[in-house]
Structure formats: C-alpha cells, structure tokens
Amino acid sequence: MSSLKFPAVIVLGVVAVLLSAGAVFGLRSWVGTEKGDGDLGTSPTASPSPTDEASAEASAPPTSSPTKSAKPTPSKTPTPTPTPTKKPTPEPTKKPAPTSLSTSYIEKVISQRLATTTGEPVSVGCPGSVSAKVGTSFGCSVRIQSSPSKATTASVVIVSSDGRFKWSSGSAQ
Q1: How many structural domains is the chain composed of?
Q2: Contact 118/148 with Cβ under 8 angstroms?
C-alpha cells in the first residue's frame, strides 16, 4: 500500500486549483467556502494539516483520467429586462353639458340679491327652462312684494355651459 501514497504537494496543488476554479466560476459552495471569502482580491488558500496527509494516504488510487464532480457552467451575460411602459391614465369623461337649464336657481339668486339691496322682499319669475348654450339671454320679471305695481325686468345671459350667468336690472343689482 505504500506505493499508492500521494505526496502532500500534489494534493495541495489539486486543492489550490479547485479553490481557484471555485473563485472564478462561483463554485464556493462546492469547495466549502462561504460567499465573501476571498472576495477582496485575495484567493483563499488551504494550509496543510495532519488530517490532510492522513486522508490522502487512505484515499483510493487515481484512475487514468481525473473525474469531475461538478462542471463549471459558462456564465451568461445578463440581458436587461424591459421596463414596463406606463399607459396613459384615461382622463375621466366629463358629463355632457346640459342642453337646458332650470331657472329656479337663477330666480333664487336674483331674488336674494335684490332683497338685500332694496331691503324689501322681491318676487322673481323666469321662464321654466332655457337653453344652456353660452350667450343665451332671457328676461325675468321682478316685483317688489310690498308694491306689486312696481315691476321691472332683469336681463340674464348664460356665460358658461355649466349654468353660470350674469344679470342686470333697471332698479337695482
């Protein structure tokens, strides 16, 4: 059996080659080193120990060709993953503008404004509904409740499709 002994130098050379291959091909787990060992520009080295020589003596004789237990795989160049493009957020659809307006709100606004200005209760009557088209103009009758004979007309003009309006009156505004 003494003819089957390996010199310790050969065993250490094989271990050094395997450690170098592990550092190059990322086989750290195969040779038993942790990630980070030898990552700072140094390669991990094995130091001879009495157990290495004893295990070398007890190992089987070499075959004519060395066996590889792990094949290094060529590393792939990472391909960039396409970043998803943001789809434009659909804007909320606006409600269609009304085609006609109820004049009850207009009557209320004019009545309150004239009552505040004159100090007397005022009654305002406008047509039931009018076109919501910008530029539409119409007249509303205005009566002071304490003097029904005093009547005037308030002129109203629609200034936006959402129902905003301007108005004017001969007596007060």
Answers
A1: 2
A2: no
